[in-house]
Write a structure and sequence with these properties.
Blueprint (H helix, E strand, L loop, with lengths): L3 E7 L3 E8 L2 E9 L2 H4 L9 H14 L9 E5 L10 E3 L2 H9 L10 H12 L3 E4 L9 H4 L14 H14 L8 E7 L3 E7 L2 E6 L16 H8 L6 H8 L4 H6 L4 H9 L3 H22 L8 E6 L5 H11 L5 E5 L3 H13 L6 E2 L11
Parallel strand pairs: 1-4, 4-6, 5-12, 7-10, 10-11
Antiparallel strand pairs: 1-2, 2-3, 5-6, 7-8, 8-9
Helix pairs in contact: 6-13, 10-11, 11-12
Length: 363
């Protein structure tokens, strides 16, 4: 049996949609939302109807009948903690992301848009590998400050999809493998997949710096800077996320530009870029200790994994732990569609979302 799946992935200034027929991509379209349009809305959540209308208008333009779909799958928004994998989008989930999200985020639009399309087409709707997926055991949550427990925050959608792919390539089950996956993008995060669960992470604010994020910085000096009177809270937040990392050192977030600087003999650019690889390698080594070094494969993914210079530096430092596989690219639309496809084929079971989402996490 063949399945047609529509995937929806909203970003801050665009909404990306893809149509898949089984594993084959039929089309992908990035629907841009101009700044002047976004600025008409006082709050992020007020953009929902506008975004849905733009999605539906594009499908109409493509002369695509939504009743031919088998399912709609959406990026998981800012819910309370949930497991990895698929959840059925229900009214409770829609109400949560529309009216009571954990935080404002463009991903909150995905489930409501998918739900409306699914209701109209009389088909199931799912989220897959939510941003808020959390399967960490209690021991991994201890931070050293009771006020600030560690939480599971990483690029789950892409890294888990690549971990599943790497398992299949080896003719093994994802649930039987230990995998470390590093997502190398505008933000960098690393996670550990132990026998089918993401049991620990190095998030983008406790590990490597990235093109625009500062990553882990010395806490005492950070506190001193916060209270120095030189910067307000918003500026400090931007120093950590948006104006940190490569941008702070080299005034660019483009890894290709950094490599051109290096090729031109810029020693500072080489030092900073190699330091980013060095920190990624340290994060991978840190997570390897959780399984006492028993790691089957290390995956480098994300947009910057296209950089052979960077991945070679990382691989040189971590290949003693396990083989390193480069699976470059964001792969988010494929990850959503393939996840829903596994549900439709009966290879995975979608969970029902409840307000006690966290209680299901008895890991």
């Amino acid at each position: 049996m063949s399945y047609k799946i529509l995937a929806i992935n909203p970003g801050s200034t665009s909404t990306k949609i893809s149509l898949y027929k089984d594993e084959k991509e039929i089309f992908t379209k990035k629907l841009d939302h101009p700044t002047e349009l976004i600025e008409k809305f006082d709050n992020v959540e007020d953009q929902l109807q506008m975004r849905k209308e733009i999605v539906m208008a594009f499908l109409k333009e493509k002369k695509f009948d939504i009743k031919k779909l088998s399912a709609v799958v959406a990026r998981g928004g800012m819910l309370p903690p949930v497991r990895t994998g698929a959840y059925i989008i229900n009214e409770l989930m829609v109400d949560r992301v529309e009216n009571r999200p954990v935080m404002e985020h463009a991903s909150n639009f995905a489930a409501p848009i998918a739900y409306e399309i699914a209701m109209e087409a009389d088909i199931p709707a799912y989220i897959y590998d939510s941003v808020m997926a959390d399967e960490m055991p209690d021991i991994a949550r201890i931070s050293g400050m009771p006020d600030i427990p560690r939480t599971s925050s990483s690029h789950v959608l892409n890294t888990r999809a690549m971990a599943v792919r790497a398992s299949k390539e080896r003719d093994r089950k994802y649930e039987d493998m230990n995998i470390i996956a590093a997502h190398l993008g505008g933000g960098i995060s690393i996670n550990l997949h132990e026998k089918g669960r993401i049991v620990d992470v190095v998030s983008d604010d406790e590990g490597p710096f990235s093109p625009e994020r500062a990553g882990r910085v010395p806490c005492r000096e950070l506190i001193n800077l916060c209270y120095s009177g030189k910067y307000d809270k918003k500026t400090m937040q931007r120093k950590l996320r948006g104006n940190g990392g490569l941008r702070a050192y080299l005034n660019t977030i483009d890894a290709r530009e950094v490599e051109r600087m290096i090729e031109g003999g810029n020693r500072e650019a080489r030092l900073v870029y190699e330091a980013m690889a060095y920190q990624v390698a340290k994060g991978i080594g840190e997570l390897a200790t959780v399984t006492e070094g028993k790691i089957d494969v290390i995956i480098l993914t994300g947009g910057i994994a296209h950089s052979k210079m960077l991945t070679d530096w990382i691989a040189k430092r971590v290949s003693f732990i396990a083989p390193v596989e480069i699976l470059a690219g964001e792969n988010e639309m494929e990850a959503l569609a393939f996840g829903a496809l596994r549900v439709l084929r009966g290879e995975e079971t979608a969970r029902e979302y409840t307000e006690q989402g966290a209680e299901a996490l008895n890991v």
